[in-house]
Amino acid sequence: MVVSSQNQEHVELKWWEKALFVQYLVLKTTASFKKTEIIELSPKEFTKAAFHFSFLVDILNIPANATWVKDGVTGAGGNGKGNAINQLSNPYGLFVDDDQAVIIVDWGNHRVIQWKKNDTNGHVIAGGKGVGNGLHQLHSPTDVLIDKETDSLIICDSNNKRVVRWSRRNGTTQGEIVINNISCWGLAMNNHTYLYVADNNKHEVRKYQLGDTNGTLVTGGNDRGNGTNQLYKPTYIYVDQQQNVYVSDRDNHRVMKWVKGAKEGIVVAGGQGSGNALTQLSLPLGLFADIVGTIYVADSSNHRVMCWTQGAKQGSVIVGGSSSGAAANQFNGSGALNFDQHGNLYVVDFSNFRVQRFSLE
Question: Which of 131, 251, 279, 304 is deepest in the core (most CB within 10 A)?
């Protein structure tokens, strides 16, 4: 497919399926072409996106009947609580890179550590210099993501009330402050290169462009509460390709969806008080939404991960949930979650000081 701009410049647009991802690639054909608007890219509700040259977008396309093995494999940690490079201390945030390397926010050790696939030890890639507010330090970080455009880590440095950027280049010894004076917990970035940040003190989510320190309110911001225009301690967030924002509204025990530009959100999971019924959540944390709007949420105090299809009144347990424990099919607090390009599920098991991988069956 060829798409022309107003200046008669054009690009070739290709899409194809690789494993469980739909992939889109814009190919530049003239030296002066910068970007274009593409409408209705695919029949799978990917309706509008602004692309830059060579910007590749992966969209997880999980089959409706997908199941995962019930016994997880430890992909990081699992050697008790500690600060050795084979240990974690109450990990929270999680990001899975394209090569299945797992990047973990090691909250209790004030560092970000990377585990490559099948490695027995991790490698510290940010912080790890003791607790503090120096640019070489972190203080109880909670989330991380990779900004592929700049090849850097974006980190919620929670107790320093800032968001920081660390280059992934070898030899990097300190970060730079991106946003200051914010009680950040969760991060998301979409293909428009907006950075979304959950502020669990102001009970809101804001989006920021590069260099913007004030941001634009996108959810909440009406003090804490359980109204549809309110949040109460938002934690992890997810932003889809239409810029709809999904929020783990932790202390309201629900997941909210805010359509782009909306003044109120929609409850898409939980919202029936704290409990362990299939209609309920208890302190939800990690969050993911696939291309058709199915929600995957870490139900932390119920020690399980749940799946809620679009419009469903109750969810289903996909892993965990039997009880708190340290067996391969158990969690002791399920935290952040993510998927790799093969559909394997990764879950932070924060009070077992490990990350578990559940293979797609």
Answer: 304
